[in-house]
Design brief:
This protein is mainly alpha-helical and 184 residues long. The chain folds into 2 domains: 48 residues, Homeodomain-like (Arc Repressor Mutant, subunit A, Orthogonal Bundle); 134 residues, Tetracycline Repressor, domain 2 (Orthogonal Bundle), CATH 1.10.357.10. The model has no long low-confidence stretch (mean pLDDT 86).
Amino acid sequence: MRSDARRNRDRILQVAREAFATDGLSIPLDEIARRAHLGPGTLYRHFPTKESLYEAIILDHLHDLVDRTREALTAPDPADALFTALGLVVADAEAKGEIIDALTGANVDVQSKVAARSADLRDGIALLLTRAQEQGGIRRDVGVGEVMALLGGVILAIRSRTGDPQRALTILRDGLRDPLRSQP
């Protein structure tokens, strides 16, 4: 992609995220183009439908999340890095919940669209978990599958609007800590 086309695409995504957050998902694509200071044709070349724009936003979020999880691998405290990554996943789920609902309502298979990036995210969390367990901050009897299942429960709480997701995340963090290291 040419650099100007990449800049236009990135600008559209940024403006669309902001517009959806402030004005809701019903905002017209032409209004997003106007706010991005681009012609509608430029927007439609990149995103022929609103659903394609939603998909791009989700994939962009997920790509950023994977990158930030990988960056956490260099943190000095692996347990804190793991908890930061889990918090990022929860924040991301809160931010894109309405968009996922809209895609699901339009019969778009969201899971197949994000499968590869989700696997990258899981791999990053697995590496953080292993490092944190080796350092001793996280209990050793927990695997990445269990962490992802528990994280899925927190995300389900967000999607169903039951309970407090931040409290659920705190409980998840507390449950992952190594009980032997938590003692005075």
